[in-house]
Amino acid sequence: MTKKVGILVVDGSEDIELFTPIDILNRAGAEIFVLSCNLKNQEDNFHILTKSNVKVVCDNSLYQNELKVLEIVKSLDCVIIPGGKILEGFYGDKPIDQIPQSLNNVRSILLEKAQDKNFLFGSICVSTGGVLEHWGIIDPNNYKYTGYPGTSKNITGAPYEISLPDNCAGLVSANSPSSAMVFSLFLVSILYGTNKSDQIANDILFFDNSHT
Fold this sequence. Notes:
The chain is an alpha/beta fold. The protein has helices spanning about 15-30, 65-75, 100-115, 125-135, 180-190, 195-205; strands spanning about 5-10, 30-35, 45-50, 55, 60, 80, 120-125, 160-165, 170-175. The strands form two sheets. It has a seven-stranded mixed sheet, sandwiched between helices. The chain has a two-stranded antiparallel ribbon with strand order 3-4.
């Protein structure tokens, strides 16, 4: 069965943490939606510039087509938030009551998704503490998670973590760009099974079996 995966991005998203999940989940057969959350005063909302200034064409833009983006987010089986220079775009360094209404509507849907044990979050680098934890979506009482050192007092410091509570959504988290490949394969193993993640790992000659 095809899984729907949304990747939420803004200017400054980390290249490796964005492109690696796109590639690996595409190989698994997922339907991928790259969704720009850049503010509407940006010159071109359907594009973002990554941390390395690579221009990425997104599938849709929150501030140009909010209803469509919210509809997509509601339909997802998994959402991924890459790290990088993204805290400003996701208001991860500001109080929740300062989040623009459109972005807060996305947050509200993700809060509902967090109660669904069949849903999966993927976060890497600063997005674990700066977005998911800051937004109140993941709670250290329910989850074990990691991220970039110093971004949250609750991160374990491990390169990657899988947390699959019985009563809420699952979470795959990783600490940095260096973990992006294993992070992506872990997402595949949960969404499609370990046989599929092993197949992809073998196809790309990635022989670290820690994702199984």
